[in-house]
Amino acid sequence: MSTRPSSRSTPRQRSKTLSRIAIAAVVIAVVAAGGWYWSKRNQTDTTGAFRTSEVERGDIRVAISATGTLSAISTVVVGSQISGQVTDVLVDFNSEVKRGDVLARIDPSTYEAQIEQGNAQIASARASLAQAQATLRNAELDYRRKADLGTQRLVAQADVDQARAALDQARAQVNSTQAQIRQQTASTQTTRVNLDRTVIRSPVDGVVLTRTVEQGQTVAASLQAPELFTIAEDLSKMKIELAVDEADIGQVREGQTVSFTADAFPDRQFRGVVDQVRLAAATTNNVVTYPVVVSVDNGDGTLLPGLTVNAEIEVSNRRDVLKVSNAALRYKPVGEAAPAQGQSSGGSRAGMSDELERIAGTLDLNAEQRAAFDKAIAEQRERMEAARQQGGQQRSGAGAGGPRRARW
After folding, report:
1. What's the predicted TM-score (pTM) here?
2. If I label 109, which of 9, 93, 159, 240 is the partner at 20 to 30 A Cα–Cα?
C-alpha cells in the first residue's frame, strides 16, 4: 500500500506564507506612501514657485530707530546749606508747589542764640566806643592846653609831645572799637542769613518728584549740601534723550519729526521734534552712540518722567509714489534656479528608492515577492519622472509669459 503526501500544508508552512504576504503588503504600502508624498511635494514646489503682490501707490518713509528716556526739561535739586535737625516737612511726592513755598524747616534755636550773643557783643563794643570817644575828647583838650603853654615856654616840650601821643592813642582806640562793631555786626548778619536758611523754600514752580528727608532727621552740610527734594519745573513740556548709533547720526538734523511709543501706553503714538544733536559721544561695549534731545508737548499730562520710549526719527519721506515689496528686489528667474532644484529633487528621489531597496533586502523576500517589489518600484519611478517633467513644463510656461506683477 503506497502512501501519498498530504495535500494540506503544515501549520509551520502556513505561518511562513502569511508572514511573507504581510511583508509584501508592508513593502507595497511603503512604496505607495512614498509615491504619494513625493507627488504632493512636487505639486507644492510647482504651485509655490512664485508669490505675487500688487504694485500700489502710497507714502514711504525712511526712519532711524532709537530708544531713550523721558524727563522734565528743567529739574531742580533742593538741598540744605546748613546743618541741623528737620522739625517740619510740609510737602510730599507729587505735591505741586509755587516759587517761595515752604518745603521744610530746620531747628533754628542754635542760630537764634548766636544772634543774641552777637547783639550783646555789639552792645559791648558800642559801650567801649563811647568810652574811647570820651578819652579822645579829653586827650584833645589836654593837648591843646599844653600846646598853648608850650608856645609861651611855660611847660617843657616833653609834656607837649606826651600829650600829642596820648591824643593819637585815643584816636586809634576809637577806630579800633568802631572796627570791632562792624565786624560783630557782619558776623551777626551771617547768623541771620543762616537763620533764614532754616526755612527750605521752593526756588521754582513745579511738582515734587522725590523727597529724601523725614521729620526728625538730622542733616549735615559740612562738605556738600544734602539733597532733600527734587522738583520738576514744568511737566507740560518734556524731553527725550535718545542714544543714536554712530552709523545713523549723520542723517539726524534739528527740526526732524520723531514718533515714539511707551510701554505704559501701547495703544498711543506720540510725536516730538529733534531739538539738539549733542557732540558728547558715549561708548558702551565698543558701541558708539550720540545723544539726541527731542522736545515733546505733554499738555495733557499723560507722559511721566522716567518712561522708556521707542522712537523713530523720520529722516526722509515720499508722498503718493508707487510701492512694491522689498522682497521683489531679490527676484531670481526660474530658469536659473530650475536645474539646481531638479538635481536636488532627483537626488532626493533617488535616495528614497535606494532606502526602499535597502529595506527590501532585509526582508528575505522570495522570487515572487521580489518581482512584485521591483515592479512597484519601477512604476513609482515612472510616476515621479512624469510629475517632474510636468512641473518643468509649467515653470517654463510661466517664465515665457513673463510676470505681470512683482514676484519674490
Report:
1. 0.56
2. 93
